[in-house]
Amino acid sequence: MSILGRRPDELDLLEGRDVPLGRYTVVRRSLPNKTRRTVGAWCFLDHFGPEDVTGKPGMRVPPHPHIGLQTVSWLLGGEVRHRDSVGSDQVIYPGQLNIMTSGRGIAHSENSPTSKPPLLHGLQLWVALPDAVRGMPPAFQHLSDLPVISDKSFHVTVAVGALEGAVSPATVHSELLGADVALDAGARTELAVRPDFEHAVVVTEGTARVEGVDVSPGSLLYLGEERDRLRLETDERSRLFLLGGVPFTEDLVMWWNFVARSHEEIVEAREDWMARPKGDGTDRFGIVPGGEEPLPAPGLPTTRLMPRPRYRRG
């Protein structure tokens, strides 16, 4: 169905697609979608698991680069060890937040620890950095204490931004919302949201009715703008992640692990990554400790990379 010409407050249920991540993990990618590429500055969303990793390697993502974005890691089950080229070495657990700012360039790896729980389940998201700050130095933030909103039938953790008066300490560079919402069976509630934001939800467990639409894992429900309340209902225990933000209107050129503004920037970043690291602090992406072999960049397409619209006809 066409998105162009529809009112901004209309709903759009978008199907995700399965994508391999590393050698051992398959994710369901909801953003970018063929018809909608961003929700606010959120420009990428992978949902992995729940997967029983007993006797398996679990997540194995060798060192790889990023530019022009923030990675937001949110676990629902299991453990993942993050290591990066600015010296961070952090195991993340469910209910905690890892947020890495690539700025001009960073490299990191993500692996399940050797001694790990049997279940692996979570979300990996990217936030596009605004042009004014996308050349900033790289940084990493780990937050183990996040604000919570709870009632007898629901429990909300505000990972990024603010909701119902609860404000996350996560450092972001545009007006955003990211919140994990756990609903008990039979829950009926409404959340107050900003009408100048566009919003979307991805369900991670069970089935929830969001503004009257049933949403299950594997789909993203785009909710549009001009809403000040969000109605949530469920007949079974369920869980979802709420995304929001002021519509991001800057041009984006996304390729592999890079978020840029032009074909030339992507070419330069790829060349910088593929150049042998000097290890003396002068190279763009640095070295990720651990001795793992970094991922090589794929070949560039034969056609010029161009900015794509925030949304287009299906």
TrEMBL record:
<comment type="similarity">
    <text>Belongs to the pirin family.</text>
</comment>
<feature type="region of interest" description="Disordered">
    <location>
        <begin position="288"/>
        <end position="314"/>
    </location>
</feature>
<feature type="domain" description="Pirin C-terminal">
    <location>
        <begin position="179"/>
        <end position="274"/>
    </location>
</feature>
<dbReference type="Pfam" id="PF05726">
    <property type="entry name" value="Pirin_C"/>
</dbReference>
<dbReference type="InterPro" id="IPR012093">
    <property type="entry name" value="Pirin"/>
</dbReference>
<dbReference type="Pfam" id="PF02678">
    <property type="entry name" value="Pirin"/>
</dbReference>
<dbReference type="InterPro" id="IPR003829">
    <property type="entry name" value="Pirin_N_dom"/>
</dbReference>
<protein>
    <submittedName>
        <fullName>Pirin family protein</fullName>
    </submittedName>
</protein>
<feature type="domain" description="Pirin N-terminal">
    <location>
        <begin position="27"/>
        <end position="127"/>
    </location>
</feature>
<dbReference type="InterPro" id="IPR011051">
    <property type="entry name" value="RmlC_Cupin_sf"/>
</dbReference>
<dbReference type="InterPro" id="IPR014710">
    <property type="entry name" value="RmlC-like_jellyroll"/>
</dbReference>
<dbReference type="InterPro" id="IPR008778">
    <property type="entry name" value="Pirin_C_dom"/>
</dbReference>
